[in-house]
Every structure is written in structure tokens, then in C-alpha cells.
Amino acid sequence: MGQTIAVTGKGGVGKTATAALIVRLLVEAKQGAVLAVDADPNLNLDAALGLKAEETVGDLREEGLDRTASLPGGMAKAEFLRMRIQQALVESKGFDLLVMGRPEGPGCYCFANSILRACVDKIGKQYRYIVIDCEAGLEHLSRRTAGDVDVLILLSDLSVRGLDTAARVLELVAELDTKVGKTAFAFTRPADGFPAELQAAAKERGLPEPHVIPEDPELRDLDVQGKPLVEVSEESQALEAVRSILRGVGVLK
Ligand SMILES: Nc1ncnc2c1ncn2[C@@H]1O[C@H](COP(=O)(O)OP(=O)(O)O)[C@@H](O)[C@H]1O
Ligand SMILES: [Mg+2]
User: Fold this and answer.
1) Is the CB of 213 within 6 Å of ligand 1?
2) Does residue 223 surpass a pLDDT of 80?
3) How many domains does the chain have?
4) Residue 227 is part of which domain span?
5) Residue 253: inside a domain, yes or no?
6) Measured between alpha carbons, how far is residue 182 from residues 81, 161, 211 in Å?
7) What is the pLDDT of residue 175?
8) pTM score, two decimals?
9) Residue whose CA is closest, atom 1 of ligand 1?
10) End-to-end CA distance of the chain
11) H or E segment at 167?
12) Ligand 1, closest atom to CA 48?
């Protein structure tokens, strides 16, 4: 398995934008193959990366359950799902994308999920880096779909709720005994500086020394024009901030 980098935090804090910029920086660094995983049910990492994903792993899960009863030539469920996941991969320049899709419904999908996890793990082996845009609730991390995490990037806006979400992720990690290599924390989009009490509140919650991902006019413009966020220039302030986070955790030199 390559190095897993998971980006998480409250909704709207900039997870998808940050994950997309991480992918861009890793592709540019040419340190090895990159797999981007959209594990947020809002499904917008593909657009941020300038791609369109037609199928999600969630679709496959349901289809897998329905179809495996009548598989051709005694094909095993695991083999069938592995093949279909490979088909769902969107291949792009320097990286691939896998979209998880919405979380499972109320029924018991445990068996299909465990097969699925094994398949994703297997596919993950083909990459040096796996960048996961996690939903705020960290469903996938808690179900270990993401497996253990090498680098956990927690983001928060300038709110106590944002900090609480980030802190809850840390608690969850401890509770589930998920192995996390390094953790980085960043405040996103501070207007003009940020209140000292939030810094104190972050410290109180055991969050690491914060980075700052500034409000970036380039990202805003790309948003307005509906263009992929990875199209920021080398001068982008957000790109620079994300680069510095990746250097801090030793992913980039
Ligand atoms: N640093 C930033 N500067 C300007 N706009 C940003 C920045 N980070 C995120 N955005 C924009 O804010 C919105 C929410 O960000 P997004 O990454 O989708 O959040 P999340 O994935 O956490 O819900 C998006 O339109 C995104 O392009
Ligand atoms: Mg998102």
C-alpha cells in the first residue's frame, strides 16, 4: 500500500479544494503514481480535478450484490468486484480517481463492504500515494475503508464547531485504534488574521500547531468560472500553503 493522505474536517472548510491541490502537487513532484479517492458523498473532487466520474464504487457495490448470484463461469465475487473497481477508475494525466459514492443504505452490506475494502486495498497497492477527500463525518475512516492513514490533514474554518469536528476525528482515531503516522492541522480562509481564542481552543483540543490556508482569489475566480481548482497558477497562495503542509509532514521535499 502506498502512503495514504486523508483530508478531513467540517463541511465547507476546503477539504475538496485542498485534496485537489495535494494531487496537483504530488503529480508535479513526480515521486510516484497517485490515486485520488473521493470519499465525500457530495462527490465533487472529480470536478475540482477537471474530471468526470461516471461510476462510483457505491454503484458497484449494489450491482455486485444483485449480480453475483448469476456470475458467468463461476467467477468469484471478489474477482468480479475487483474487475469492476478497475473499470470505475478514471485515468488521467499522472493520477487516477476513484469515487466511493454515497454510503450504504440501511440494509446489511457488510459482506460486500469487506470484499470491497479488500479490493480497494489491492488497487491501492499500485500507487505510491493515495489522497482521500473524506466526508466530514469520517464514515470511511471509521469503517476502515480507508485503512490506516499515514498523513491525516485536519482542516477547520474560524469556528469552534470546525475545531470540534477536527477534534472528534482525533478522538475517533484513538477510539478505533486507527494507526495515523502524522497529523497536520490548518485553519482555512481566515479573513484578516485570526482570533487568539481560536488558537487557544485548538490547542486545548489537542490539535497540532496550526498551519493557515489563506483565502485565495485564484480559487475564488476558478469557482466563479466553474473551472477545475487544480488550474491555479504557481503563485496561488492556497497552493503554497498546501505545499508547506506537505513539506511539514515529509511528503514533499
Ligand atoms: N483557500 C480558499 N480560498 C478561496 N476559496 C476556497 C478556498 N478553499 C476552498 N474554497 C472554496 O470554498 C468552497 C468550499 O470548499 P470545498 O473544498 O468544497 O469544501 P469541503 O470539501 O470541505 O466541503 C468551494 O467553492 C471552494 O472552491
Ligand atoms: Mg468536499
Assistant:
1) yes
2) yes
3) 1
4) 3-248
5) no
6) 32, 23, 14
7) 81
8) 0.91
9) 215
10) 21
11) helix 160-175
12) 27
